[in-house]
Amino acid sequence: MSRVYNFSAGPAVLPEEVLKEVADEMMDYNGTGMSVMEMSHRSAAFQEIIDTAEKDLRELMNIPDNYKVLFLQGGASQQFAMIPMNLMKNKVADYIVTGQWAKKAYQEAQKYGKANKIASSEDKTFSYIPDCSDLPISPDADYVYICENNTIYGTKFKELPNTKGKTLVADVSSCFLSEPVDVSKYGIIYGGVQKNIGPAGMVIAIIREDLITEDVLPGTPTMLTYKTHADAGSLYNTPNAYCIYVCGKVFKWLKKMGGLEEMKKRNEEKAKILYDFLDSSKLFHGTVVPKDRSLMNVPFVTGDKEMDAKFVAEAAKAGLVNLKGHRTVGGMRASIYNAMPKAGVEALVAFMKKFEEENA
Ligand SMILES: *Cc1c(COP(=O)(O)O)cnc(C)c1O
């Protein structure tokens, strides 16, 4: 067996320890004589898996009691519609557009009401986070929407926007569990788990209880109503049971590692190794305004497309894979999520140094 350093933006690297555990339990989970894949979602064994996963997540994020944790399907993209369908009572919402995912959410919301773009960083290819301290928040806005970490462009909100009392909704797909957060500042925090937590196919939505009502837009399907899933403990229909199980293992791993304070420390340390090199390199440079740099997704370029392609190809041969930038941006991107060990980032920087010398 040989493992590579996988810098994919998602689906992405998972902790080796977790992969080994789920492999060990593949044929016989905890004396049940079957894999979790083969198990009824109504069984006592699975109920314990989902309850434990929720309990551990609540502990990790210090989630207040007046928030529900929902394990949903449809990917992060389905939330782009579910959020307006469930929250747009006045049919008005304000969007801060800091990248492609925020833009998609903004465009989707236009189907359901008046979505206002109250700030954007598109003028400079989303390479920064706009000043959000005094935005023209709509008086009747049902919520203010952000994408907190921009996976494609590598920016992160270091400070939450001033929503002037309006409910904040945040897509945290690519920074989920990367550092501590104050859940009480949000109405909804949600993210696809395939970036920083588990296998693809599930979203975790953490929602303040007063936002979960029957008063949704007319025509909202049962399956797209938060209340359906909240009332059923995420077991209204068959959930992505195997994904919940693997995510639960990752929560245990995070707790064992020391929780989110410790992850933040590690993530800062890892990102610093790469950013420090980018700041000193003559060949490679980062594409993001330094103060807005993400700890999770690090885009960089040489400024020469052929050189970029050569780098990506040679890196892959050296076991450093999935470094190609997003198809809309080009260049390179290293995603260095929780499960990427420091040794992986060190190996990448060592390789970049060598490449720079050879191509000077
Ligand atoms: C990947 C990603 C999405 C889309 O996720 P899907 O699960 O594929 O729908 C949305 N938002 C952000 C920030 C992402 O990184």
Task: Please describe what this structure looks like.
The chain is an alpha/beta fold. Helix content is 35%, strand content 16%. It has nine helices and 14 strands. The protein has helices at residues 16-24, 44-61, 75-87, 100-109, 226-231, 241-257, 259-280, 305-317, 342-358; strands at 5-6, 67-72, 92-97, 114-120, 144-147, 149-150, 155-156, 168-171, 188-192, 203-208, 285-286, 297-301, 320-321, 332-335. The strands form four sheets. A seven-stranded mixed β-sheet has the order 2-10-9-8-5-3-4. A three-stranded antiparallel β-sheet has the order 11-12-14. It has a two-stranded parallel sheet with strand order 1-13. Helix 2 (44-61) crosses helix 6 (241-257), helix 3 runs parallel beside helix 4 and helix 6 (241-257) packs across helix 7 (259-280). The relative contact order is 0.16. The model has no long low-confidence stretch (mean pLDDT 97). Pyridoxal-5'-phosphate is lined by residues 10, 75-77, 101, 147, 151, 171, 173-174, 192, 195. The modification N6-(pyridoxal phosphate)lysine is found at residue 195. Pfam families: Aminotran_5 (PF00266). Keywords: Amino-acid biosynthesis, Aminotransferase, Cytoplasm, Pyridoxal phosphate, Serine biosynthesis, Transferase.
Keywords:
globular, 35% helix, binds pyridoxal-5'-phosphate, 360 residues, alpha/beta, 7-stranded mixed beta sheet, 3-stranded antiparallel beta sheet
